[in-house]
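Much of what follows relies on a compact textual record of a protein's fold. Here is one such record, which you should read through line by line:
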Amino acid sequence: AVQADISREADVLAVFEAARRLGPIRGLVANAAIVAPPARIRDFDVDRVRRVLDVNVLGTILCCREAVRHMSTAEGHDGGAVVLISSAASRIGSAGEYIDYAASKGAVDSLGIGLSREVAAEGIRVNVVRPGTTLTELHDRNGQATRVHEMATKVPLGRAAEPDEVAAAVLWLLSDEASYCVGSILDVAGGR
């Protein structure tokens, strides 16, 4: 494993170099993201917003750039698949808590659509998975250990997703079984 802060270009380059040494790069799952503590926009400071956007948007763009450089048939490579991880927050908005996070994930949705059209002819399929409330430690880091369980009551299925349920969608989009999926946004949100 290679540790990296994807908002730092040098770290992203190091990750791709390490991956390249293992063999041809055929896929990217852009999953790294952060969320700041819940707050209303009137209480945001510029450092909070910049950090969320640097990791969630800039970092994702840098990873996509390197994936294209290492997968594009126009560059002499064999193609591949990219799956961007967005969030149901991009369409819900997360008012009063995380609108900066929601906005960053809206940017990821747009990136997925635009990039899919830009590189499809170069043998790279780009799609987006938009999970809803999922049992991960994302909110724990902000001292909200019970948030996922509280949010689960708003999900029509009545529960949060297991990480494996989201992973199954990602694996399918990376696979040849999804060979005609380009520019798709797949909600894995339990109906929310």
Notes: DSSP finds six helices and four strands in the chain. The longest strand covers residues 124-131.
